[in-house]
Structure formats: structure tokens, C-alpha cells
Design brief:
97 residues; Urease, subunit C, domain 1; 2 domains; 5 strands; elongated
């Protein structure tokens, strides 16, 4: 294995079967290997995450996809009998923000 560009280590790395102390060896921005916690080649940059949980491949699903809808709900639609007029108003409101 080539020398890693960076190592991230933690006492709590999520592995396929367990959570344990380990080191993540990164080469060219990609996880190249997993090693023992103290497996750090000399002169390799190290991020010691301590007891912070480290896991790969997690996608943060916390998004606000309905934020635009809540903003549009603030438009008073009571006086708009024509859907086209209402949609034009919504478009103007959104593009102005």
C-alpha cells in the first residue's frame, strides 16, 4: 500500500461488524485502508478525533425541501379566483426573494 496522504483515527470508528478504535488511511481523497488505532506512518498528517464517532458513507438526510412551500403559504390567496393569476404572483414572490 502507498503511504496515505492523511490518517483519521478515533476510539469509535464504525466498522461493518462493530465500533472500535481504528485508523482510516486516506489516499487521493479516498479511503485506502483501515488500520489499527496506533498504525500511523511517520510524517503522515493525522487527525485524532478522540472519542468522536467516525463513519464513512453517511449521507445527511436532514434537508428542508418544504421550506419553499412554507414561504409560498404566506401569500394571501383569498382574493385570487384565477389560478393563473395566483401562480404568477407566486413566481414573482419567489424570484424577488
Amino acid at each position: 500500500m502507498d503511504k496515505p496522504d492523511l490518517i483519521i483515527r478515533s476510539r469509535r470508528i464504525v466498522l461493518p461488524e462493530t465500533v472500535s478504535p481504528a485508523s482510516v488511511h486516506i489516499r487521493n481523497g479516498i479511503i485506502a485502508a483501515l488500520g489499527e488505532w496506533d498504525e500511523v506512518p511517520a510524517q503522515t498528517p493525522l487527525v485524532d478525533a478522540g472519542d468522536v464517532v467516525v463513519m464513512s458513507g453517511l449521507v445527511d438526510a436532514h434537508v428542508h425541501i418544504n421550506e419553499l412551500g412554507r414561504t409560498l403559504c404566506r401569500i394571501n390567496t383569498f382574493y385570487y379566483s384565477c389560478p393563473t393569476t395566483y401562480l404568477k404572483l407566486r413566481y414573482q414572490y419567489v424570484t424577488k426573494s
